[in-house]
Amino acid sequence: MTIPLLDLKIQYQKLQLQVSRAFGRVLKSTQFILGPEAVKFEKDFATFCGVKDCVVVSSGTAALYLILQALDVGPGDEVITVPNSFIATAEAISLTGAKPIFVDVLEQNGLIDVDKIPGMITKKTKAIIPVHLYGQAVAMDKVLAMAKKYNLLVVEDACQAHGASYKNKRVGSFGRAAAFSFYPGKNLGAYGDAGAIITNDLRLATNVRLLRDHGSAQKYHHEILGFNFRLDALQAAVLNVKLKYLNQWNSQRQKLVANYNQLLQDLPLILPNNIDNFTNLVYHLYVVRTKLRDPLQRFLSDQRIGCGIHYPIPIHLQPAYKFLGYKVGDFPITEKLAKEILSLPLYPELTDRQQNFVINKIKEFFNKK
Ligand SMILES: *Cc1c(COP(=O)(O)O)cnc(C)c1O
After folding, report:
1. Whole-angstrom Cα distance, residue 221 to residue 148?
2. pLDDT tens-digit profile of 249-261?
């Protein structure tokens, strides 16, 4: 049996007919960029998230960048975020000309340690970007209280947390705006690059709409300088097919996680746990921890079980960020997690038989130790 970390084929087979029909509609219309499919998705995803507006863009990275740009974050500004994320979170800050300032994370869940924020605030601090990593939800009331105290903007990186909620409100609806990615492997994934911003601030949404399309609301009239961050209509069409299934897929992930948690509990592994009872997690990834991470990954890989490390090198230690002057030891918890974390196979279509195979192989590994 071969079990990949993520298998998108089964889901595609189930949706093939619907996706082909949707693609057919777009191809026939020859409206290949944005258009009615994009408008429909914007409306439906805003409703799903419980916010006033959604603007689709070309990727999650673009979404983060466009929010910051629309909020006038730029050279001379500092933006606080975590080193325990995909590099895009920090890259978007850097692309505006602002400087990313990192704070370490909580060991129990890898999410921003809000109590560490005050120590990093300067006169230049303009915004905070909490990251809802692995489909978890950051304790947003703490973030919002901190932001209020220091007069900071809150921009949520919800790229891994479609449908997660905190105190019965969807993540992404707490800050001034949030970025989502629909990269194919995300909980809601397109068949290529895609992203969106959501917000309750209609002026901000208008601004992002301008920025994503050359600063233009009317063809060849350019009010401000923007760029091309538009979404393909084909991607919007896939998202319209898939959005209807998101809740169902997320519950399937939760069921699989409950199974993993139960059947792995007696092993010397640190399992993900919901440290905040007010959150509903959607498990983009199932991440366990062990000091034996590398040998375990090798063992599973030999058994043709796909695993991943999200992420092996913290952002502050990436060569690309050498110029910020951070060094090993600056964020000890993030660095410790990077050495111990392992993402196990998880996707809604993972069968019990496949999951049991993974679990038994992990047991076999520890029995030999
Ligand atoms: C995927 C992801 C992004 C970037 O999204 P893209 O669509 O790949 O540009 C940003 N932040 C986080 C946390 C992500 O997981």
Report:
1. 38
2. 999 999 999 999 9
The tokens for 368 are 């030999």
CA of 127 to the centre of ligand 1 (A): 19
Q: What is the mean pLDDT of each run of 10 residues along the chain (369 residues)?
A: 96 98 98 98 98 98 98 98 98 98 97 97 98 97 97 98 97 98 98 98 98 95 96 98 98 97 96 83 97 98 97 98 97 98 98 98 92
Q: Are 159 and 180 in contact (CB under 8 A)?
A: yes
- Residue 220: asked if its preceding bond is cis (omega within 30°), the reply is no
CA 183 to centroid of ligand 1, rounded, Å: 7
**pLDDT tens-digit readout, 265-279:** 999 999 998 777 788
- Tokens found for residue 196: 């969106």
Beta strand pairing call for 195-199 and 177-181: antiparallel
Beta strands in 82-171 (DSSP E): 99-102, 125-128, 153-157, 165-166, 169-170
> Which pair of tokens denotes residue 105?
């994370």
Q: How far is CA 72 from the centre of its chain?
A: 23
Burial class (CB in 10 A: 0-12, 13-18, 19+), 80: buried
Nearest to 331 by CA among 105, 157, 149: 105
**Residue-level pLDDT at 317:** 98
Q: Which of 59, 91, 136, 159 to mutate to test the pocket of ligand 1 (most atoms within 8 A of CB)?
A: 159
Task: DSSP for 178-236, please give it.
Answer: EEEE--TTSSS--SS--EEEEES-HHHHHHHHHHHBTT-SBTTB-SS---B-PPBHHHH
Predicted local confidence at residue 273, as pLDDT? 83
CB 183 within 8 A of CB 63: no
User: What pLDDT, on a 0 to 100 scale, did the predictor assign at position 274?
Assistant: 77
Query: Cα separation of 169 and 201, whole Å?
Result: 17
Q: Where are the alpha helices (DSSP H) in 30-76?
A: 35-49, 60-70
